[in-house]
């Protein structure tokens, strides 16, 4: 009796070369998205002086256009499992590519995001970020900068807006698990908010020159209550956004 042969394992998306179609779609995406971004920044440079609150529909229009291009040009579906919580919270998101940084206003309503201060100093973009309500983070700053950051965060909470942070502090390759930046635990303690961990594994599809087709899935975890020890809250966040690999 002839033995049946097992099919060879599928090549992971992150390891396979891009198809000619994916290369073409990526080129079209870059042309459309970055042309639109340049036009938006030109309009923004004027509207920030004349009508600062126009920043909100402009940002939403920009992120909606990005999501549309991701779906219809790149062929990447976006799915969301779970729901944002009611009331104030600090959302801690996995960071593998620019996708989630751009797409965040599609997931949460007017999120106030902790962003590197270097970004907040960019011409036009930085000023727009301040007006929108981003919170600049000085990693090596002292107590005065921390108090200022907390003041901004509490002001945004008073407006009913969610806070969002990428606690790994940098983009992390898919499948790898980095320790969280120490500032995350400090914010958790001082803000006394529940933390909502959110995983999003966009790296294999989006964090590369030639984007791959597939599905990016957000998974919104259960809220973690305030007041836990640093080791526990960090472990619980990591177990959602970067779960340990399961042994083969």
Describe this structure in words.
- It is a single chain.
- Helix 1 (20-50) packs antiparallel against helix 2 (55-72), helix 1 (20-50) crosses helix 5 (125-132) and helix 2 (55-72) crosses helix 3 (98-107).
- The chain is globular, with a radius of gyration of 20 Å.
- The chain contains nine helices and seven strands.
- Mean pLDDT is 89; it is low at 1-11.
- With 248 residues, it is an alpha/beta fold.
- The chain has a seven-stranded mixed β-sheet, sandwiched between helices.
Q: What key phrases describe this protein's structure?
A:
single chain; 248 residues; alpha/beta; seven-stranded mixed β-sheet; 7 strands; 14% strand; globular; disordered N terminus
The radius of gyration computed from the alpha-carbon positions, rounded to a whole number of angstroms, is 20 Å
Largest sheet: 7 strands, mixed
The ordered string of helix (H) and strand (E) elements is HHEEHEHHEHEHEHEH
Strand content: 5-15%
Stretches with pLDDT under 50, minimum 5 residues: 1-11
Task: Give the mean pLDDT.
Answer: 89
> What characteristic shape results from the CA principal axes?
globular
Structural class: alpha/beta
Strand order in the largest sheet: 1-7-6-2-5-3-4
Report a brief summary of the structure:
Helix content is 46%, strand content 14%. By secondary structure, the protein is an alpha/beta fold.
Task: Detail the topology: elements first, then pairings.
Elements: H1 20-50, H2 55-72, E1 76-81, E2 90-93, H3 98-107, E3 112-116, H4 117-120, H5 125-132, E4 135-137, H6 143-158, E5 163-165, H7 182-191, E6 195-200, H8 203-206, E7 214-220, H9 230-241
Parallel strand pairs: 1-7, 2-5, 2-6, 3-4, 3-5
Antiparallel strand pairs: 6-7
């Amino acid at each position: 009796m002839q033995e049946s042969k097992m099919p060879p394992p599928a090549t992971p998306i992150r390891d396979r070369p891009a198809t000619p179609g994916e290369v073409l779609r990526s080129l079209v995406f870059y042309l459309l998205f970055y042309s639109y971004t340049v036009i938006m920044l030109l309009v923004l440079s004027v509207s920030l002086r004349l009508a600062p609150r126009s920043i909100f529909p402009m940002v939403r229009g920009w992120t909606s256009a990005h999501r549309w291009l991701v779906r219809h040009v790149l062929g990447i579906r976006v799915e969301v499992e779970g729901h944002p919580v009611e009331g104030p919270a600090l959302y801690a998101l996995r960071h593998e590519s620019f996708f989630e940084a751009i797409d965040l206003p599609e997931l949460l309503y007017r999120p106030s995001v902790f962003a590197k201060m270097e970004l907040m100093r960019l011409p036009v973009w930085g000023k727009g970020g301040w007006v929108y309500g981003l919170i600049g983070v000085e990693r090596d700053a002292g107590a005065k900068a921390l108090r200022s950051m907390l003041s901004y965060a509490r002001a945004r909470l008073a407006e009913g807006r969610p806070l969002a942070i990428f606690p790994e502090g940098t983009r992390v390759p898919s499948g790898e698990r980095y320790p969280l930046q120490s500032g995350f635990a400090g914010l958790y303690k001082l803000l006394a908010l529940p933390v909502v961990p959110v995983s999003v594994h966009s790296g294999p599809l989006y964090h590369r020159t030639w984007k791959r087709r597939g599905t990016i899935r957000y998974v919104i975890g259960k809220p973690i209550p305030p007041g836990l020890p640093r080791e526990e809250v960090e472990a619980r966040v990591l177990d959602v956004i970067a779960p340990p690999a399961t042994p083969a």
